[in-house]
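note to self — DONT lose this again. spent like an hour looking for the file last time. sequence + predicted structure for the chain T wanted, 294 res
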Amino acid sequence: MRLQAPAKINLCLFLGPRRDDGLHELCSLFEPLALADGIEVSETERDEVLCPGVEGENLAARALAALREAGWEAPPLRIEIEKRIPVAAGLGGGSADAAAVLRLATSGAFHAQWTGNSPSDPWPDSTPDLPALAARLGADVPSQLAPALALVRGAGERIERLPDPEPHAVLLLPGGGGLSTAEVFAEADRLGLGRSEAELDRLAADLREAAGGGASPLAYAELLANDLEPAARTLRPQIGEALDALRVAGAPLAFMSGSGPTVVGVFRSLARSKSAAAEIGREDAIVCAAGRFP
């Protein structure tokens, strides 16, 4: 069977205090994109996860191992990932793949294919606790279990789904990816960036009110910012140039996503995003719809 693992952007990211576990308190709005990795799942003799062209640790493989450790009894699987989301670009591609693998454990279609029963038949008692597994895999994985516009708190584990926003589109400039999240947070700490928990609470309330009626992000652009941008720009100065290019091309809202280096221009329509991409003329530009995922 075929799965889709959608990218996400951080419409905003507000940085709070560093916690005892080394992570930071955050306040963010996550939004899914039509841009997605393709994943093909088939039965095989032993579990294997393949991601051609991507080296290093595979978060999807860790997700499958976590399901097995939790007692998931599906047959051995071959999982092959077709990467369309730029790697290490602040778009949550690895987390999206891991979440898609975890979703197999509660997929009616997969359950029916595996057991030969109806998708509505009772689930086995061994169905794992997916939110708990997701939280152990990484800060962005819990929100990707059910991709949707969401207010995210804590280090990513507290998720409040919000109504789907009005249609809009984005123009992404990934800038080559490859920017380490850990290095960006370390640089943010060195620069003394961050806010108090009380300020995060206030910002969360403002975002909930602004986005709670299903408005486009363009309707509350004044609330959207990324506290990690100064740290990321120190490590990758080209981020500033990309933001300038988006603004010159007419983006009503432009910001860095996550820990970068991808910058995002938000537009009212795909047509306007495409014309801005043509004006900028960068080979790495990606245009896609935003805000909803089937």
